[in-house]
Amino acid sequence: MAQKPQTQAAQIEDLRAYYVDRYSQPYRLGNPIRDLNPLVLFVFLLAIAIASVALPWPVLAPTIGCVLFVVIAILAGRAKQFIPLYLKLFLGVGSVLFILRVFLIAPEEDATVYWSWGDNLALSSTSIAAAARFTLVVMSLCGALALFFQLVPAKNLMLALQGVGLSSRSTYVVLSSFQSITDLQKMSKVVVDAQKARGIEMEGGFFRRVAAFFPIITPVFLAAIGQTEERALALDARAFNVPEKPSQLSFLPKVGVGQWLLVLVSLVIAVGSIVLAVVL
Description:
Layout: H1 3-24, H2 38-54, H3 60-75, H4 79-104, E1 113-117, E2 121-124, H5 125-151, H6 154-163, H7 168-197, H8 206-237, H9 257-279
Organism: Pseudoglutamicibacter albus DNF00011
Subcellular location: Membrane
Protein name: Energy-coupling factor transporter transmembrane protein EcfT
């Protein structure tokens, strides 16, 4: 009879030691780049984007910026997620921007005109260079934003914002908003599969897709309204309105000297590129 309480006490102590060790360690993702503080990583990616826009090399600078984003994704172990997404942005958004800009920019006097139609549409050497510059700049800015959200989970971003003074209620609202986007994407796929199972044509030409849009959007919209109400009730159910400081079971690693140096380098890159753009 004496061994049973000791065994239970030992199990309780082991569980206590396990949870103390688990929640006393900072939350890490196992990659040096992804374990950077999200705000530090944001400053670094923003500096690359600013340099891509400001440096006085119209096509080379944004091209290097786009390549750097791909390299960072590979080093961070997110190449399979980021590269296909980035290619879709280039093919979908970038190609449209390039086509629109290349024909709508008026050729300069000394430019070589390859094709023209009337007084408004023309394809020239200057329009190609300007369209390439504009498209690569936009893709560089989009790449910085897309890579940031590929590298940083929403949970880490909220922990970083909470660490600089953002209230727990605000972080919960922002985090639930990110989560609702993911939930709505999953819900839309479920609705599409359900409509296909009912015999509704969801694929085909443009007009058929437009006709199938409303049977999809209505259930998704109703689900979004229900989730909004649930998240509003969760603020009270999880004691977010209590004035006392809440317990925090997850926290990020402290920002060390290396990360502060990265912030300094990022500021130098951003300010230096702007100065070069003004001087040159």
